[in-house]
């Protein structure tokens, strides 16, 4: 996995409200699910997930994904803590830029799978206060990996300026932002490669 400790990115929402020289740290903290909580309501719409929430992805056994929201969130929390000291932990943290990356991939002619790989999983559950979990089955993971493993990162990133330019106010795209997106794409590809190679599912966790 790429060394996320060396990555420096800007979230789109952050860049609109702050000076472009301000670094954006997308790493969130999962809300712990209290024991005895009410049943999880249906997850928010995919459009809301794409536009306003942080997203993280990671591989896990299909049985854990099927076990439900609490199990997936517990695995996510463990990976978050582990990733603070171990940059090789299999966690892809897209922060607030998941939808941006989706748009870049679509612009680069990967429309069929761009949404699936970032926010198109099956609903697992929602804690009702801002954390939503989706998951992709192993066969879907294999489809995504087949696409990601064959792409040229430079070709994809050539589509980025056309997507990013309208998103930022005067001052242009912040320095380093495109490099950060490329890092995200590398992490995304690594997670799906690992999951596909081991026959695992992939969880998509959204926080807002």
Can you characterise this structure?
- With about 210 residues, the chain is an alpha+beta fold.
- The chain has a single domain, classed as YfbM-like super family (Hypothetical protein yfbM fold), CATH 3.40.1760.10.
- Helices cover about 45% and strands about 15% of the residues.
- It has helices at about 10-15, 45-50, 60-65, 70-85, 100-105, 110-120, 140-150, 155, 160-165, 175-200, and strands at about 55-60, 90-95, 120-125, 130-135, 200-205.
- The chain has a five-stranded antiparallel β-sheet with strand order 2-1-5-4-3, with helices on both faces.
- Strand 3 and strand 4 form a beta hairpin.
- Helix 5 (about 100-105) packs antiparallel against helix 6 (about 110-120).
- The longest helix is centred in the C-terminal third of the chain and has 22 residues, at about 175-200.
- The model is unreliable at about 1-45 (pLDDT under 50).
């Amino acid at each position: 996995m790429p060394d996320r400790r060396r990555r420096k990115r800007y979230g789109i929402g952050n860049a609109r409200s702050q000076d472009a020289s301000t670094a954006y740290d997308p790493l969130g903290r999962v809300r712990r699910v209290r024991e005895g909580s009410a049943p999880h309501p249906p997850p928010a719409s995919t459009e809301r997930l794409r536009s306003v929430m942080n997203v993280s992805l990671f591989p896990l056994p299909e049985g854990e994904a099927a076990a439900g929201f609490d199990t997936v969130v517990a695995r996510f929390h463990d990976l978050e803590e582990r990733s603070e000291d171990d940059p090789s932990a299999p966690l892809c943290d897209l922060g607030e830029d998941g939808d941006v990356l989706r748009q870049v991939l679509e612009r680069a002619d990967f429309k069929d799978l761009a949404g699936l790989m970032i926010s198109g999983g099956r609903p697992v559950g929602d804690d009702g206060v801002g954390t939503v979990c989706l998951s992709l089955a192993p066969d879907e993971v294999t489809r995504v990996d087949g696409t990601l493993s064959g792409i040229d990162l430079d070709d994809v990133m050539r589509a980025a300026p056309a997507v990013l330019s309208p998103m930022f106010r005067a001052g242009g795209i912040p320095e380093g932002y495109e490099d950060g997106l490329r890092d995200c794409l590398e992490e995304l590809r690594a997670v799906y490669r690992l999951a596909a190679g081991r026959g695992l599912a992939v969880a998509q966790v959204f926080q807002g």
